[in-house]
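User: Predict the structure for this protein chain, please.
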Amino acid sequence: MLGRADAAFGAREVPDPMTTIKASCPTCGDVELTAHQVRLVVCSVRAWSYYAFSCASCLEEVRKPAGRDVVALLISGGVLAEPWAVPAEALERREGPALEYDDVLDFALWLDRADLVAAAAAQPPARPLGGEDLGVPQHRA
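Assistant: Here is the predicted structure, written as structure tokens:
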């Protein structure tokens, strides 16, 4: 349901302020929403784009995938799209074991000793610093 701009002015189609968007809640069934009740997130990874709304009946947030056609339809209905650019690092292939809680704890403990790092950065060293000076074990061949 979209309103039309006055054709005499050559304007293109604009959303009617009373546009009704129909969606479905998995608990309550079909619901009617306004453009302001729908959140549309368009991701740089197309498969991750989604739209979401709070169901007025059960108060649950409903999130559904938004393909290209759904994105176009919601935007034409007046829903504002939020861009979401996924950082390249999040898409990198990782190898090796996953970090565990002990790894994070070891890193936090190492940061407690980071005064050595700050001191090393504050003044040029009298001799070249190696990783052992910073508490990082070195592997020698």
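DSSP finds four helices and six strands in the chain.
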